[in-house]
């Protein structure tokens, strides 16, 4: 990003580490402009940051597909077929090699 495009309060991401946060402060040192992010309290070069829109942020909730997969796994592991298979092992965790 160009330093003129950045402002305090803007939501940005540092792509190298995936760090995302809001800009708390801007600081100019020499020819470089740095932005302090609220998530880490560290300064990042502004030209290395990218703006983040609502659609680009990671989803914090579970999707319906994930909920369905979890339900199927619970059903499988609680079923009699899986329980019977476990009962036929000595549970020693040997790799056999």
The helix content is 10-25%
Shape: elongated
Radius of gyration: 24 Å
Q: Can you count the beta strands?
A: 5
Residue fraction in strands: 25-35%
The first-level CATH class of the domain at 3-51 is given as: Mainly Beta
For the largest beta sheet, what order do the strands appear in spatially?
4-3-2-1-5
Task: Provide the residue-averaged pLDDT.
Answer: 84
Query: The CATH topology of the domain at 3-51, please?
Result: SH3 type barrels
Describe this entry's structure for a reader.
This protein is of the alpha+beta class. The chain has a domain at 3-51: Roll (SH3 type barrels). The chain is 24% helix and 27% strand. It contains two helices and five strands, in the order βββββαα. It has helices spanning 64-78, 80-87; strands spanning 11-14, 19-29, 32-37, 43-45, 50-51. Strands 4-3-2-1-5 form a five-stranded antiparallel beta sheet, with no helix packed on it. β2 (19-29) and β3 (32-37) form a beta hairpin. The longest helix is centred in the C-terminal third of the chain and has 15 residues, at 64-78. It is elongated, with a radius of gyration of 24 Å. The protein starts with 10 loop residues before the first strand and ends in a 10-residue tail after the last helix.
């Amino acid at each position: 990003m160009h330093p003129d495009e950045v402002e305090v309060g803007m939501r940005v991401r540092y792509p190298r580490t995936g760090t995302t946060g809001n800009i708390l402060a801007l600081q100019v040192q020499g020819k470089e402009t740095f932005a302090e992010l609220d998530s880490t309290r560290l300064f990042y070069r502004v030209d290395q940051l990218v703006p983040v829109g609502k659609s680009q942020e990671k989803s914090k909730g579970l999707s319906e597909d994930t909920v369905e997969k979890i339900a199927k796994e619970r059903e499988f592991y609680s079923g009699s077929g899986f329980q019977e298979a476990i009962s036929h092992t000595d549970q020693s965790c040997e790799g056999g090699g």
